[in-house]
User: Fold these one by one.
Assistant:
Number 1:
Amino acid sequence: MQNTVLTYLEERNFKAIRNSFKDINEIDIAELFQTLFDEEMLERDKFILLFRLLPKDAAADVFSYMDSDMQMLLVSSFTDKELQNVINDLYIDDTVDIIEDMPANLVARIIKSADAETRKQINAILRYPKDSAGSLMNTEYIALRRDYTVRQAIDIIRKLGVNKETVYTLYITENRKLIGVLSLLELLTADDDAIVNDIMDTNVISVQTHEDKEVVADTFSKYDFAALPVVDADNRMIGIITFDDAMDVIEEEATEDFEKMAAVAPSDESYFKTSIFKHAKNRILWLLILMLSATVTGVIISSYDAAFAAVPLLVSFIPMITGTGGNCGSQTSTMIIRGMSLGEIRLKDFAKVIFKEFGIALLCGAVLALVNGVRIFIMYNSDPMVDAILLAVTVSLAIIATVIMSKCIACILPMLAKKLKLDPAIMAAPVITTIVDTCSTVLFFSLATKIFGI
Amino acid sequence: MQNTVLTYLEERNFKAIRNSFKDINEIDIAELFQTLFDEEMLERDKFILLFRLLPKDAAADVFSYMDSDMQMLLVSSFTDKELQNVINDLYIDDTVDIIEDMPANLVARIIKSADAETRKQINAILRYPKDSAGSLMNTEYIALRRDYTVRQAIDIIRKLGVNKETVYTLYITENRKLIGVLSLLELLTADDDAIVNDIMDTNVISVQTHEDKEVVADTFSKYDFAALPVVDADNRMIGIITFDDAMDVIEEEATEDFEKMAAVAPSDESYFKTSIFKHAKNRILWLLILMLSATVTGVIISSYDAAFAAVPLLVSFIPMITGTGGNCGSQTSTMIIRGMSLGEIRLKDFAKVIFKEFGIALLCGAVLALVNGVRIFIMYNSDPMVDAILLAVTVSLAIIATVIMSKCIACILPMLAKKLKLDPAIMAAPVITTIVDTCSTVLFFSLATKIFGI
């Protein structure tokens, strides 16, 4: 596709480009622009030419799906008139998203080119804290009065609808307070003369402007809404959040969890948009903390130097035992953290979780210990320097104890974090592994010194 | 809430229960049932009584949001008539979901109570493989003819709409082939006499029945649709998938990634619904593989026994060096795997990723090495048994080399897995940690033997 467009552009065959744009989804056109931009396949001053070939009704949509770098380039090439057209065709929440990533001079230009009403609404949304429901919402929605007839309501929607992001959920307000909702489907299938008041649903689920986007995502996942109303503290209707934004939030939340669970400070930007320096900054703090914590394990190992002087072979089992402990711990902590973030596991389930993980640890520990015991016995049985049975028993006991300990630590710590109102995701693999390393080393050497009588 | 209901039930004040049900969202009612069931707060034979108090139009909805155990209990208590009412009020895709979790005798009862048309559609969906687009879809949608006027189309929707899961996207078919889409918004805002053919969008994005749910989730995330049409190989329209099911898929896919990345075999069931035995089964295979792989590191350590006999202190640095390597590797592999699953990182970006990670590794490695070198020098400078400078240099060099090596391994392996058409998620923390353990141990000891001249 990009090559066809480039060829047409070379040939100055603008009609052909215009025609092919008609058959492509706006999102795919935005992706085309993005590829040409990212791979530097087109000079920077040619993009505005290409953008002017877009169908009029697609331009704003295409613009809204681009990366901020591409948007900045275009905004700086737009005439005032062009900028005005694009901004006034955008949904308010998209304009706000765009503005948030732009330098001040371009923001000023964008806000100036919006009409008075749009400008007021943009400013209103910009006032809400980042990641709050208010910052995600769109202030364009359809509000009806309770005394409308179905026929009147349909007429209003047919007249107003084209500028609203979703018309599929209708909100009934009285003195600006949200008193009911009605799906467009319910409206359409009702009698023409029925009154909105009689068919609306008064049991309204909403979020407040200041609530975190996590609450928004959870509410969407729970109730399967196409749109969620946003109200202020007095239940006055302020805006709506649509399911497509909620889907983005759900993905962002998962990405944040992945990052935190890998001991990386979460970042809003995509991998390639983040500089090497920023990436390093996001990772170094946890690496330092964990590195320094790991020295504890080192100190413990050196304190047992008598043991590994007596049976030097013991040292070679450390990586296997600490590794297994770490893996068992990561499995458990990941399951618990994910379960809590999906709402499947709650704090009051603590006892149930411990019981379950203890059972799992017994089963897994037994299998691992058995396999290991047999392997050690076979490997060292003919070695006159080693008491194969004692070694097999020591390592097997250490393994089963390590598995149980690490699974227990890995379910206690995330739940404790939650209890302390911290994000459980910080108690994921890296932290658990470091703690389990220390504990399993102590376990192993204290067992070994007892069993070998060192 | 549950206590109020229980009290009313005790008092046989059914009217009060019926009234309070009217003010609660169906999903919250289902949750109430579920809590009473899970916590065994109500005898099992009382649930059907409670269910009969639901508003008629809410019953099927509430039923569809329950867990399968609760549903089974109800189905076995339903009269034939009740079952019929519930099943014929459910959306087909919900019925299929319910059926998939039930024992054969109840499935037979459910299918028998559906009307002929519903039964046919249920059977059609059941034929598609699990996790395919076909298994997710709903066969109830609104198809229009291209020659309808807007007025005719609106009338049809008003008549048919109530039984369809979404009427907000309309599909135009000809000889059953999908030739266009039209949003209800576009239809409502068009002239009464306009022809559907002239206002429909012929650039239709669809998925095929056999495609994986991952493709479905990606298409939804990319295009922000409220519904996605599902077609067969000949572009014949078969069904639709709605955004709420897509949201569930997006969450499921993320959960699967979390599980795989923690070396747990992914499972469809929630944490508590999975038995201890099943949990252990899902975890033991990777634990065994990783445990046995870790013995390699052990063998390497014992082969360097001359080194740690000469400088016993060396052994105590192993956990810190391998731990740091593992953490650096986990950070990188998590970022790469998540980036690939979001489509931000593609295989052709390989060189860019390696370059970026190398830079990050240099920065992080330098900081970690410096902090460590200084720490070691301070700690051991006054110790006459140790050459503090040599030790600081050795450990610092080992750290920086380990960081670079582990970040490189951690970006190569997931991308290699993708290239080999494996799931990159298996190359996450546990596997990377095990590999990095071995490599960093070798690195450390070969550096140490060289520097200390052992």
Note: The radius of gyration of chain A is 31 Å.
Number 2:
Amino acid sequence: MELTAMKEQLTQLERELHAYGHAMGCLSFDAATVAPSGSSEARGLTLSFLSEKHYAALVNPQVRELLDGLWSRRDELDAATLRRTQLLREDLDELTRIPVEEYAAYARITNESSERWRAAKATGDYAVFEPLLAQVLDYSRRFAGYRDATRPAYDVMLDSYEKGMDSATLDALFSMLRSHLTPLLASHSPSEPPAFLSACCPVESQRALSAYLMQVLGLDGSRCALAETEHPFTQGFSKYDVRITTHYYENAFLSSMYSVIHEGGHALYEQGIADEYQYTALADGASMGMHESQSRFYENLVGRSAGFLRFLAPTLRKLFPEALDGVSDDALLRAANRVEPSLVRTEADEVTYPLHIMVRYDLEKQLVAGTLSTKDLPEAWNALYKEYLGVDVPNHTVGVLQDMHWSEGMFGYFPTYALGSAYASQFMHAMRRDLDVDALLARGELAPITQWLGSHVHRYGKLYPPAVLLERATGEAFQPRYYVEHLQAVLKGC
Amino acid sequence: MELTAMKEQLTQLERELHAYGHAMGCLSFDAATVAPSGSSEARGLTLSFLSEKHYAALVNPQVRELLDGLWSRRDELDAATLRRTQLLREDLDELTRIPVEEYAAYARITNESSERWRAAKATGDYAVFEPLLAQVLDYSRRFAGYRDATRPAYDVMLDSYEKGMDSATLDALFSMLRSHLTPLLASHSPSEPPAFLSACCPVESQRALSAYLMQVLGLDGSRCALAETEHPFTQGFSKYDVRITTHYYENAFLSSMYSVIHEGGHALYEQGIADEYQYTALADGASMGMHESQSRFYENLVGRSAGFLRFLAPTLRKLFPEALDGVSDDALLRAANRVEPSLVRTEADEVTYPLHIMVRYDLEKQLVAGTLSTKDLPEAWNALYKEYLGVDVPNHTVGVLQDMHWSEGMFGYFPTYALGSAYASQFMHAMRRDLDVDALLARGELAPITQWLGSHVHRYGKLYPPAVLLERATGEAFQPRYYVEHLQAVLKGC
């Protein structure tokens, strides 16, 4: 076949995969936002049908022949087409290596396991969940073997969320965090949370703040909608249609404020991917960690910075006059950067957050290696929370059952949260060479910052693996020390 | 093939068609409710892909063979399977008879025509729209010929929205309406609209009223969600997931109140279709007119009845204390049943509404017959509004350009609105034989009423053509006189 015709077929294939993904994404977004509670079974039928079609569109002999054909002529391909071919071949290989029956069984088991986890979390009864977790773990380990039997299972799992990542790199990151942070935290006595943090801020005013923040972030509002859900998230159907969500608590205005900035960071990444990559395999973030780096960049390095908070303070006072009456810029700054070890990851401050990840990293490494059994997991969890964060776990609901990830077989996912923060600090370090970041933040002028990230990170989509993108953007390989230094500075400042 | 296997294939086919329909429906609902404004082109790509898949799932030789095979053994089929086969064969025939190129060209032209109509409506410039309307009309006429060359084109069009309907039946309906209503209206002097109709009713209180009405209507809230859109509509993905929408105007609380009751009637129909018909070709209303009969039954025969309004009045006064302070039940009743000829169909009262339909019926019949040209349409429109409603049309925006239907090629659709009202009155007449309807309305006890409609209409879905369903439910063929009598009574009462 002519190369031109093959490229045309590749584009058609990607359009097809995109269309199924878009439809499934829309059904899921609808489910999370406005669908009536009793509609899930009916939607499940449609989702499962579309997911089969999506699978069949990729996993078939014609596609195999097309991708192998393109690969055999890889010297003639431009960089983008080459990478698209490579990414799709990887997906195809992965799906092909897992026997279809096991894949289906796994889907059933993770579905059941997620339900059991929900029930267990509600009552705190870990025993209800444990047998399912054991099964999910078993499948995940086996699947890692199918993917690559030559490497340790946990490294294969890490690689599936963060291409190229391994436990050696993460060990280095976490040991550096441990050695620099734990002594500092041990001698840190948290201040009392100021009363204004829990003062009543009407939801309508918080909605106005969200709209203002989206504007300050420079999100294209005609291509990004804000919805309300229990747990905030971002979903990008394409750069032309991104959704972010938040949750409003009357007595915690910072919660939604930082959700909007965090999800806004994800959305800016989606909106920044090059036009010519849309609807192709490149139209996504480079990796989970890289996507998280953008949300955390905006949330923590922009949103909690002294400059930006001082810029934002007058608007906050205008929107929440009763809550913020007499609150100084400095008091706001301190409140937004308060550090206090706690039990629940999603409510943790920036500094103690990676310690929550460290607990999970240590435990899932052992679970996958088989040196820790799912039966002994809660005890190990509680011990590590005591050791790393100095807190006692009162029950499993706020302990080992707090996150859904493991119930869905997502072993190796947690580290991407910490990696995201670390990448963000490395980007900031590099950006400071080109821009007077503090001056821009103080003026609330985020456009040059987003343009820098746009031209160094966003526009490339999945063109490069995360490690390559990081090195191209910052001029050096992964350096956890910028992150550690940043956290030390936050801890000293509060 | 075994009959059992063929039936299984039929079910699979319907599931597939349902799944594509569900996905496209979800994308459209999302577009109408929460999608960002700039996302339509990206969504268009996915919708067009899914629509091709939907088409290909039905229009192919295997399906033709299956449906013909089932049809050849129709004596062995149960009523539901027989009807499912028949409906799908009709769809297949219709799609097969129109050449694919013409179908695609038609889609492009109606798309352009809709856009032109929107632009023309905004400025009132009919000339911008006319050439496209002429093309759409031309295609519609040709397609009617493909469908059935032996009957007048307009009858074929009517039949596509209301199976079995023809212009002879409609001529009888409209001439009866004309002869009974126009003299009465000529001597009717409308009262001034009372001030409370446009008093401020906060949107939050109107939202509370919507929730209350959905409860009084007996809608299953776990399977029906309410959203807000510019124009109210109902969309049922299945009986397990129905969406209704409304629009709140601070100074017109009756507008949203009757939208919710009207769309609620559509939703009750969807929710009432038998479980065993779900995801099959039977899982829909019997026809456009029949669906409309249910919305209008609740809106007009329930919602504007003296009994129900008196039942509702205390709640309205509690929700809108400032607006309804000192307003008597009788004043509310008169306001909800005010009759005054006006320019715009969607804002018309119950009595003058069918005259708006009559104008469109007369005009589209002539357009399709070729006795009226699209160039002369505005003049003819204005003349008929003067003749039937006694009003002068000041500009085309509120005149011939007010509705989008013709721009989308929906010739023959308007009469279903009037038919719906007429069916509703015939159902009410029959229901009164079995139930003390007035006593139930006065107690706000709608369950027995909905149960009657459920067992006589809703549960059958598309099992029967509308005329058969009507006769089975009411014991007689279509009788427009119940509708005319009802409108006369309303007119006399106000």
Note: The radius of gyration of chain A is 23 Å.
Number 3:
Amino acid sequence: MAYDGVETPHGRVDRMLGGAATYISLASSYFTRTRIVAVVGDDFAKEDTDLLEKRGVDLEGLERVPGKTFFWAGKYTPDMNDRETLTTELNVFAEFNPKLPVNYRDDPYLLLGNIQPKLQRHVRSQMNKLRLAGGDTMNFWIKDFREELLATIREWDFLLINDAEARMLSGQANLKKAAQAILDMGPHTLVIKRGEFGAMLFRKDSYFIVPGYLLETVFDPTGAGDCFAGGFMGYLAQQGFDLEADHISRGELSRAVIYGSVMGSFCCERFGVERFRTLERAEIDARFEEFRRFTSF
Amino acid sequence: MAYDGVETPHGRVDRMLGGAATYISLASSYFTRTRIVAVVGDDFAKEDTDLLEKRGVDLEGLERVPGKTFFWAGKYTPDMNDRETLTTELNVFAEFNPKLPVNYRDDPYLLLGNIQPKLQRHVRSQMNKLRLAGGDTMNFWIKDFREELLATIREWDFLLINDAEARMLSGQANLKKAAQAILDMGPHTLVIKRGEFGAMLFRKDSYFIVPGYLLETVFDPTGAGDCFAGGFMGYLAQQGFDLEADHISRGELSRAVIYGSVMGSFCCERFGVERFRTLERAEIDARFEEFRRFTSF
């Protein structure tokens, strides 16, 4: 969990609630009871935990320690397909060693945010009855912590990364070849996020591609990829899938990709988490149906 | 019709058959009897007209004049999403003034390749019983021949351009806003091509988006946009649509977009027109069904 400073062509906010755990849990909360493990400093505002609690997010695993909360600031390019990091202050996040509350350890679903692969692996090892586990990573870990990362994702059911990360991890420029190479690393399911161009789902024997939702105005893409992850995992958890029993179908996974896309699209409509203050489940389902209309032929 | 020199990361060909009319008519020939109007020089090879004749393309409107055929050479970027023009020799194309054979003038369907807007308008004015007419344009006409272009597309049913051209023509960076602005210029149907990211169809009250087909190897994207146009128009002509009677549905238009995408994807599988020497209709329909499989949820 973090505070972010963001500048886009539509405006600028110096400090607002952010962080992968925040976006993932807000998005996921529309589908299933969501529990988070994260760390914040003593500067973390009550109104921010209030927002998560209002959405029913379980904060037992939220550690509060002396010091300042992680802070990131960035500026987007005019077309908002890229951004420049202006500031990264790790603060209390530097010493973060995620410990799962006992109450969490028998849960069946686990989504690991983008942190050091060794910590992701440590979190996974604390879970006793996993039915579906996966997560995110980023260029930094792919480049400089490759062996750790490979050992970590080998145990995952799914990996959720963007197209540049998929190319870097696989060493393949072509996404179809990249996907096959990554599926050989362990996960049986790979989701590649492509920003405004949508998302792709790959399994050994099938694939699914959805274009991005066409917003009239993208205010701020910050958190959209995390909201995708939250919608994807939230939907699968809501359905109660059991992957070990191979109960999960390509159809259900593709619907999870659509719900991920829906949540990512809502995230972009306002700065930061603003859209989630008013968003209702009925709007989510209406946009899901809109995806069906504009993609079917 | 042209000769092209092309360099991609997969190889280089110094001189091969090319040109919008060539690609469009080859793609369209799988769906309907196609007639072309174009100009070539006395260097144009018999084996190249033979290829078109073998596909049943009517060459009565192919003018052969003294001089050299249009020549273009270009080099693609490593990701093949962009290309640099190395040479453009207009040759006999410089004096081209398309004249339609009498036999062509009662045909119901017209697709205008990317030439000077005034010439496109002149061609359209020679047709007596049009039921569906549209075409392509490019940045050069949008920028320096804007008034002529606007007068030309005002009479079209559809416009088929790429995303950068749509932004330039409309002055809108956002594609949804760009599309609405372009639909106010006359055409009731707009198709925006996005290269490897697929295509979008816009009408006043609906839209359709399809992702690009995922090829394992893109050998040469030259002509893919023209093959898209040929597949799109060819399919609509095969169905015998009459737009004046408003017989055309969003469903049929979106299937035309899929056939366009299918033809564009085949084009990229080999250099130049090579793929069309062996391609069969059954392969086209199989790939259409593959599009259905990887996009439905």
Note: The radius of gyration of chain A is 18 Å.
Number 4:
Amino acid sequence: MNRVPLEKKILGENDRIAASLRERYRESGTLCVNLISSPGSGKTTLLEKTLDALPRTQRVAVLTGDIQTENDATRLKRFGFPVRQITTGGTCHLDASMIERHLADWSLNDIDLLVIENVGNLVCPSSYDLGEAAKIVLLSVTEGEDKPLKYPSIFFKSELLVITKTDLLPYVPFNLAAAEENAKRVHPGMEILRVSCTKGDGLHEWLSWLERRRQAQAPETQALV
Amino acid sequence: MNRVPLEKKILGENDRIAASLRERYRESGTLCVNLISSPGSGKTTLLEKTLDALPRTQRVAVLTGDIQTENDATRLKRFGFPVRQITTGGTCHLDASMIERHLADWSLNDIDLLVIENVGNLVCPSSYDLGEAAKIVLLSVTEGEDKPLKYPSIFFKSELLVITKTDLLPYVPFNLAAAEENAKRVHPGMEILRVSCTKGDGLHEWLSWLERRRQAQAPETQALV
């Protein structure tokens, strides 16, 4: 079975489209981030809190991926920003061509921050460049501190780790220091934030991170918050 | 890109090996179950509780899959049963050839219950038959009640849903009835158990389910517990 060369060809084609998307984001000054985690780590909830905190005048858009259902787009649309669901119908990750297709009638010149919420999967999405400026991995405290060592690829490729659901720390056997140490073993330069969407802890730091990252992408645009 | 025919070929080859494994399990009267869930849903912890509860005289063996690390095998070996780690090195699921290879020097005639713990991934493992008698999907209450609708394939193909970490119900916005209803929408005949490994709730029902299922596979062998 000639699988590896075919995977290389698929990834090569993906990389070509991703490079073209990256060039378009650069031209329009759009910061594109790609959120990746296990199912249920809190990507959609973090996005709800993010959209809720941003002034409606901000030029933010979301593409949210799932295998089935439009649930996440429904949850996110109520904040008034453009949100589009990408339903993969079985595919375990988003790829660059899906992004290109779903951006077709959006003008990137009108978008300062484009957030992509990937399919819930800590493995496969790490292989697919979507042209994003940064991958961001979420890990909830209920999942265990060993995950960076078990799933190193996504932790190695992500600029930022957001440790979510810290409000549950009193009730779960999660060693926060060990989790952070494991992440740094895989990716020494990784930035790490601790967030509880329920209590609001760390949301300010998260919004500041996004703003700082966006300024780096397009220093002349208006501040997000 | 000619991806679909190649995937069919790979899955066809996998199915051929899985069928041969299934025949071997049948001949030896071995019950093989395949545990699948997101990372951090508690597969290894459930197995720890299971092995701890079983008499050492029982003929139970475990194959545990991960992308990297031997952590889970280390955790499980201390109960005295044969345990072998399958490290996939990047692959997002176990396939039948990995099982065949790792069983090579084990005699199935000496194993009444073979538990396979798949790679933590709610998507890809559902496509790979390992010759098991039953797939079992775990869903922790921290992941959200919408998961059966978002990841229908694995819920459709699993005989049993184990809802884990029920001790965390007071602290998370998880609607147990809705989760079970969503699972039944995808798979009307699905059996469902609720388990807290921390408190011990539901473990007796889980062990009884395994025993009942094993009796169905090989009615003449000695009871597990």
Note: Chain B has a mean pLDDT of 95.
